Amino acid sequence: MFRFDAGLKVYLHREPVDGRKAINGLVVLVEQALCLNPFEPAIYVFRNRRRDRIKLLLWDRTGFWLMIKRLEADRFCWPKDAAVVTLTVEQLHGLLAGIDLAAMQPHPVRIYTKTS
């Protein structure tokens, strides 16, 4: 599997998107619905109503990439927090692997002291 650069921002479009939308239609959604610049170094993530397909839109200074993933036996777990959800690249890889990001809990902070 390929990996995205860790420095990229990741934005999720919360509402389902018509699966027939191509690059131009998704660019309009980025500009109008997310109020973001589609030409910045970021990945924009969209899903269909059934949550079994996901589309990634990415600008790489020479053109747009449109990537599609279809799950055969499961559904993508979509975060439900804010109007525009931002993720890290590692969280995006987890989402693409089918991990429920809302169920993930950070490890507790442990402080170790040196004893004599």
UniProtKB/TrEMBL annotation:
Xref: InterPro entries: Transposase_IS66_Orf2
PANTHER family for this protein: BLR8292 PROTEIN (PTHR36455:SF1), PTHR36455
NCBIfam families: IS66_TnpB
Identification of the protein by name: IS66 family insertion sequence element accessory protein TnpB
Organism of derivation: Methylomonas fluvii
